[in-house]
Amino acid sequence: MKRILLSISLVCAVSACLFATGSKEVSPKENFTAKVVLPSGGPAIALSKLVYEKTQFENSVTEYEVVAGPDVLQARILSGEADIAIVATNFASVVYAKNKSVTLIAPVVWGNLYCITSENISSIAELKGKTVYSFGRGVTPDLTVREILSKNGLNPDKDVTFQYLSSAADIPPAFLSGKAGIAIAAEPSLSAILAKKPDTKILIDIQNEWKEKLGGLSYPQASLIVKTEFLKNHGEYVKAFIEAAKNSVDWVNANNAAAAEYASNITVLPPVPVITKAIPRLNIYFVDAKKAVTAIEKYLSVLAASDPKFIGGNLPDEGFYYQAK
Question: Which class is 32-110+219-320 in CATH?
Fold first, then answer.
């Protein structure tokens, strides 16, 4: 009887450890390891359910890593260390143009940029002659904003004066201090600003303007990709991961507060209440690659109009897009 009780106690103890970590049981037939790398922010929030619960798949071990800043993320991709990742959609195009080593599975973040103001203006036309504080000079956020201004009849080089700060993180202190009366803010920075200055006016939802002026869901800012070699060798794993990723995105959108809690435990973010408010404006949607081709090509074309190097020279061919077999 003592042996039976001891066995039961050991089983309970092991089970408690598993549930405490949020891990799911891994098949004993482990024969490969998959490395998933996500940047902090919207992409990490999108798959926060998988990362926090350390979701595993049959016959494999999945390792998750959340990184800060684009340099580390890009290094993981270029070195081949990452098997699956979420990256800027145009960066995926650049890598594909080099050696076709990645396949795009789905855009998952459809823009997070907003023009905010504390001034007494209420239309895009009233930005003429104004100074707008922004970030990312000459790269994708800047090019996206400039495209929207152009589509609304403003010349971004002549009608608006851009004052560029070093990063998106510099926008909140500049705006809250009164230094910037008009600014481009990215979520979750926008929600952090609204928490401290509730009377802040959202003058332009860049995503809605994109939909109105260029069509589609919005612009596919960040996408889930897989290393092409990994896809060839582990197609069934990729299918299972895709389904889990879709479920995570759906769960995040349906459970903002819980998702914010999960995300705050896997990366450094603003406080949970701020992230909870930010999630709806992060525009996290999982759209299969084949259904998103038109939106992706339109976005890449806008970037390429500034400089083809932003997309690797030319629009990617159909081999770039994942298609389940």
Answer: alpha beta
